[in-house]
Amino acid sequence: MAGAALAALAVPPTLPAQLLAARESPFAVGHHHLNVSDVDAHKKFWTMLGAAMAMFGDTDVVKLPNTLLFLRQQEPTGESNGSTVNHLGFKVPDLHGLVPRLKAAGFGIVTTEVVAGATSDVHYNEGQNVHMAFAKGPDGVRVEMMEDKSLPGTDSHHIHIFTEDDEATQAWYVEHFSGKPGTRGPFRKADVPGIELTFAKVDSPAAPTKGRVVDHIGFEVDGLEAFCKRLEQAGVEFDVPYRRIERIGLSVAFLTDPWGTYIELTEGLDDFE
Q1: HSE-up of 136 (CA within 13 Å, CB side)?
Q2: Which residues contact 167 (CB under 8 A, 6 or more apart)?
Q3: What is the reported pTM?
Q4: pLDDT tens sequence across 132-173
Q5: Burial (CB count within 10 angstroms: exposed 0-12, middle 13-18, buried 19+), residue 45
Q6: How far apart are CA 257 and CA 88, in angstroms?
Q7: Average of pLDDT values for 185-206?
Q8: Do residues 36 and 213 lie in contact, with contact meaning Cβ atoms separated by under 8 Å?
């Protein structure tokens, strides 16, 4: 799996820099890899959510603020629901208009299945003062959409991680990834530049992400080699140790958090023009 991810980075890309948060901080959300059975279906889904498309070598890439989604043509082993990365969250300017368009295009809206007490496709969350909805995209990728009418377009908001121990998971990301701890509604969270990591407590272990539709999440790190050494000194084991790919000016490393979320670390991805 790591070899496939590295192969996707083997050709200089044509996409402009997207990971702007990484220019303001040594650490930021980077990119995520999706295993997809039908690239065109995903392109249709994500562009309806307001994303732009680009190519990175031979790989189709979904471009959203502070987040790149790499679409790898590979049959996933399962949906995002049931894995540690249950869903990806975005803010959209016109949720009430978007939901009917997604339904008309054949994509599932599963708000009433996901949100306790929801009786319609668009649910008003009184505790967070926000209208929200859940979509089920191709291959079962689950997406939460939250309405923010002040936005000019779709914006990345959170990665929702399901874990048996939300307190320990939050503490792990705060310690190792410089997350700012807090809460949103009933959930613990850790804010990193560009996105919120949200943690939901579940009664039984969620499946690891590797192989699922959301295969892994990614972070862009300035000074990646030193960062990896600090993680190793803290007892973190790497699936793929730090390596530098000189021909494209990119450094990468892969690890899995203690609860099963596969993580790619990069340095240099935000510098590509």
Answers
A1: 15
A2: 188
A3: 0.91
A4: 999 999 999 999 999 999 999 999 999 999 999 999 999 999
A5: buried
A6: 18
A7: 95
A8: yes
